[in-house]
Structures are given as structure tokens and as C-alpha cells.
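Sequence only, no structure available. Ideas?
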Amino acid sequence: MATIRGCVESVIAQSVAAEHIVVDGGSTDGTIEFINGCRSSVARMIPGPDLGIYDAMNKGILAGTGEVVGILNADDFYAHGEVLAKVAEVFADKAIDSCYGDLVYVDAGDTGRVVRSWRAGPYDVSRFYWGWMPPHPTFFVRRAAYERYGLFNLSLGSSADYELILRFLLNHRITCRYIPETLVIMRVGGMSNVSLANRLRANRMDRHAWRVNGLMPYPWTTVLKPISKLPQYWRR
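Reply:
I predicted one. C-alpha cells follow.
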């Protein structure tokens, strides 16, 4: 409940209006009551059970009507009140299909303490072969791309976001632009990073993400993906 409050309030604090859709998988901690108290700022609440985080994301995408889609998890919040304004500036160029920025991980109990800093860097599609991907929570995409190329593939487990980004950017080559600043702050504890077993399972699914797109990675591509994140721990 405490984290969803920070998430919702960071959207409300944006200097540009957004169609904010909240998807709840059946919370019993007061989340629904809190959201109901924010109905003037939340366009729609979708309650009920789902098949996991990516199924919930798909529900939100399908329910939306805006031209650009951004996804913010309950544990995440926008870094400042101008994030969506900067995103809107990028999409003012009709030739741009997507954009991303940097991400900062913070301690779950003390959001002022930075644990990792993910500086994604300029866009170059060839970087995917060297283990790179943009931070998914900072990834904004035109709705037309979802309509043309599909939603999250639930069979990919915790690699569903990686597969979708590969599908959009590498397979179908939608256009993309980098915003060189922190857009989203995330509390530590992501699904694919909870344990070594989860990380190994995620790596197997990462390889599968290439296969389902008919793409051929280098032998070292998915090995480098987690290794490339190590510098994030000393960039604070």
C-alpha cells in the first residue's frame, strides 16, 4: 500500500495530464480503497485476478486510449514532475515510435539511498548483441506498435519485457530515442533478481526471447546481459 501511494502520487505530480489506468490483481491491503479516493486523477481502475505482472500490463494497454503507452509498476515512481513532459517532447516528432531513459534503484525502506544506477546510454540497435537493453520501466511506446506487433508474451515469464523490447526494436526496428536522464526510480527487489535460481531461469528465457523472434544472438549475448549490469552498482 505504501509503494502504490508513491507511484500514484508521482503520476499525479506530473506537469502534463496522463490517462492513468491502475490494474490491481486483488489486493487486500487497502490499495483499492486508496485508489478509489484518487478517482479524480485515476482514469480507470481494473480490479480482479490476473495471470501475473505481464498479464496485468496487457490489460492496462488494452484499456488505454492514449497515443503513447508508459508502464509504471507499483514499486516504482517518476523521478520528478517533468518526466512525462520530456517524453511528450520526444513524441512530438511523429517519426519516433519509442523512447527510454535512465533508471535508479533505491533501498525499499529508504528511497533516498541509491543502490544501483542504470545509465542506459544512447540508442544503437547493435548493442543488443552485446547484452544491452533499455530499462523497461522507462520505455514509452506508441500504441500503434502494440497494435501492429502484439502485447507481452506471457510464455516468456520474467523475460517478457526483454522479449517485447527485442521484438519492437531489433526485430521490427521501430524508431527509438534516448532521454539522457533518470526518468524512473525503482525500489530494489525485481522479479528476475530475487535469487540465483531466478536469474539463471531468466537467462534461459532471454535466449528463448531471441528464438521466438527468429533472431540469432552471439554465443555470449545472453551471458553478457547480467554481467553488463555490474557497473550499475558503483555508479551512484
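Residues 2-233 form a domain with the Spore Coat Polysaccharide Biosynthesis Protein SpsA; Chain A fold (CATH 3.90.550.10).
Hope that gets you unstuck.
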